[in-house]
Specification:
The protein is of the alpha+beta class. It contains 8 helices and 11 strands.
Length: 239
Amino acid sequence: MRRGVLLEEAVDVLDALPELEDALDLERRLLARRALRARTMTVRRGRWGASLDAPLVEGGFGFLVLEGAMVRCVTAAHRTAGELLGPGDLIVPAEEQPEDPQFGGYCRAIEELRLAVLDARFARAAAAVPELVPVLVAGQLRRAGTTSRQLVIVQSQSVEARVVVLLEHLADRWGVMTRDGIVLPSFLSHGTLSLLLGARRPSVTSATVRLDARGIVHRRPDGRWLLPVGARQPAAAVA
């Protein structure tokens, strides 16, 4: 598995956590900008051995996503499920290897990642900004909530319904409103959607073709998804 490329470039972590910036007054914000500086790391597209880079953040918080997107995958037998992560999410390398031996795990960068390395040095400096910890915890709780909603989505018996509801769910974070409708990123390939949906890739491809024919979901020539204006409808109507 690929390892990340550690850079000496320092980044202002406060810029990646707007919730933290909003929680601080001007004086505390200036202090936070001086204290919360971290090295960066780049992970190119493909499978990433986060556990291989774990020593970089030993004694610290983990890796904070600044740019890009990745899927954290959990495997059991012949099945794989994925969680989509992006800017503002904290990656803890220990999550790559679940404690239960029946399960495995790995990370896959579906878009080049730029990460802040929140190592032991960063953690010591962050002691001057205790407001950071509640923000990181809140981010992890949001992840848990997103995963719970995703579990509800994958229980639908219709792959078409799963695709529509998942894309609408992802649109809240990843979508861009245009005149034609909501546009989602091209890294949401059929393979990525299959991991998020708990469905096989051919089934997802067939479902999107049928949805496209009905004008509910459209795959643009640039690979991005379009949820057309006026096409959104209850999942029950799609099933």
